[in-house]
């Protein structure tokens, strides 16, 4: 043991001072005696209490001397040499991915690792520095280069587990940037080793150690969920994996719009996966939810959600005399609620999200999105002329345009005639020919506008496979879904919410029913708000009206659902870390708080012994007071008897004396 403040030993003068006070202290005690024969003993005690007599050892004296010694020891700040698990400069990367929620260690892997890390912080030496990071899809620095244990523990409390993957490469890169310019630095990764791109071996110039958390447990997981039409009916299917070492029978429930459809039981061998199907479902189904009925160590992958068709539907008005190609194509789109009218009955109500004018252009345009097909001659938005041109060749105007995604332009062979279009600066040419642009599209004044310069009946476009694809791309451009694709994303994956033209506010309501405003600015990117798995509702305010959509967040991550901990990290020359090992074998750890607690115990004992005689004397006094009436009565009774006996003795004595006197006189006479 070492003393950090050896000068405090000078306070040892307290010990002789206590002894001196005991030498000088008169010790008189009040005694109740029953006879004056005991006065001599009282005088002897009085003489013995004179100062500078021989020291008498008492428990109080011993406790006071011991308390003085302990007090001096506390002031000297004793410290012992102990092993420290984290010595020098250490950067701790705490894995916070979905697999760290597994309960194979109590209460779960993440909390177990955090408790272990808190113990490491308690064991830090005076010269040690610690940096804390969490590792999920994006690493996050909690605190850097700190020696303050309170600050380190406060930063550790802010860490939380996620439903995301773990990007070890980004975490190591960030740790190396924190360690730049420092020596004697090491990296400690605490987790189960389930990281992204684990087949790629990383190289680190700093030593990396791996503290494995978890023992492994059986788990079943949903890996996919979707709904698709089959022979005109709607069916749902789900893929389930059995991440365990034994065969299992897994019941799986399916809910359609929160109503239970049915339960299918799937039998899977150890480590195998399979597919289960439900149907036919109601044609109006919009949301499906699958749930595995099983008690496993990880529950985040037991649920999955999927959208049926488009979550956000727009009101589309078709103004045409008659166009079968347009009508059938628009009715097959899941994001369109189609309304029809003729040019002579058209009324500008400005209540539609998209208005399609086929061979007609009104004098006053509505406020929503606009799609013109074969517009009439006139200045208008495109400056079409009265004459038509015969098209010789068709090509893509912009290969980067999303409107031509999966569209085979070479399949369009014939366009007999087209208006000559003049593109405004804000319009982009999508389809073109040597004679004139054929399809223009762009955004202006918070609305999207497109124009097709020819009549569909004058071309073979509606007869080609490119037509439904082009119409689908146009509808998604005019009426974008909140999240592209099928509206399914993984937890923590970057998400961009596509807002409709004219939207001035976008909010997202998560599975926890918490609403967060994510736009403006646009496009909205709620990356930090999509960690929970479940259904997310998107509300857009467009021209004063609310437009509702949705997207889903699912785990769908086999690397996180397979709960067997990794034996090692994919880092060259990384080593395993034993929780009981010590990196620095000589670290001073102060123990004065424990010594101070011992001092408090000694003082409490000394006070108890000091107050005990007084309490005993009070108790005896109360007992004496209770007995006093009985003693008085007994004393009075015996006093009366004593006086009667005394009177009898006096009377007998007088009689005896009289008898002796008479006998003496008689002898004298003789």
3D structure, described in words:
It is a single chain. Strand 15, helix 7 and strand 16 form a beta-alpha-beta unit. It contains ten helices and 31 strands. It is an alpha/beta fold. Helix 1 (14-24) packs antiparallel against helix 3. It folds into five domains: 2-80 and 592-613, no CATH class; 86-216 and 563-581, von Willebrand factor, type A domain (Rossmann fold, 3-Layer(aba) Sandwich), CATH 3.40.50.410; 222-309, Immunoglobulins (Immunoglobulin-like, Sandwich); 323-478, Rossmann fold (3-Layer(aba) Sandwich), CATH 3.40.50.880; 488-554, Immunoglobulins (Immunoglobulin-like, Sandwich).
The strand count comes to 31
Gyration radius, rounded: 48 Å
Apparent shape: elongated
Helix count equals 10
Helix and strand composition category: alpha/beta
| Major beta sheet summary | 8 strands, mixed
Strand composition percent: 25-35%
Domain tally: 5
Low-confidence stretches: 580-586
Supply the CATH class of the largest domain: Alpha Beta
CATH superfamily of the largest domain: Class I glutamine amidotransferase (GATase) domain
Percentage of residues in helical conformation: 25-40%
User: Distance between the terminal alpha carbons, to the nearest Å?
Assistant: 110 Å
How would you name the oligomeric state of the polypeptide chains in this document? single chain
Major β-sheet strand ordering: 16-15-17-18-24-23-22-20
**Might you state the CATH topology name of the largest domain?**
Rossmann fold
- What value does the average pLDDT take? 83
CATH architecture of the largest domain: 3-Layer(aba) Sandwich
